[in-house]
Amino acid sequence: MSNNKIRVGIGYDLHRLEENRDLIIGGVKIPYEKGLLGHSDADVLVHAIIDALLGAVSLPDIGTLFPDTDEKYKDADSIKLLKQVYYMVKEKGFYIGNLDTNIIAQAPKMMPYIQEMKKVLSSILGLNLEDISIKAKTKEHLDAVGEKRAIEAQAVVLVYSV
Ligand code: ZN
Asked: Which of 31, 48, 82, 161 is the most exposed place for a label (fewest CB within 10 A)?
């Protein structure tokens, strides 16, 4: 890795909404008629954050580190994976500066849960609440997300070494 002391990472994820699944976003269980489908708990926001962190320190992506062919990660708690990834970032000598994210969902409304998500993420990542941004957008009823068939998330993270 180059001697850059400041680096950025970007992460993106999408999961389908299906019946008979819990909806877990940002480590928070949200009451809804459907949940996100995936091998793990399918926490779309946490997965985007994990990929942003891994990208920032040039580690392999989430699908490579935690393959969905591995039974170990079936219904895995994504928050636990995030803890592991945060540890890897620290091992590389980096701290997190700030985290900015988008959740793109037509339904349900994310706003009532965002403060709780921030609290979960701040406790895991050792950040102040004001260093974490979670924004909620809809897709104006367009495409799969707009038709409530999927939820997307994006994350950008800045990391630095001292
Ligand atoms: Zn995912």
From this structure: 31
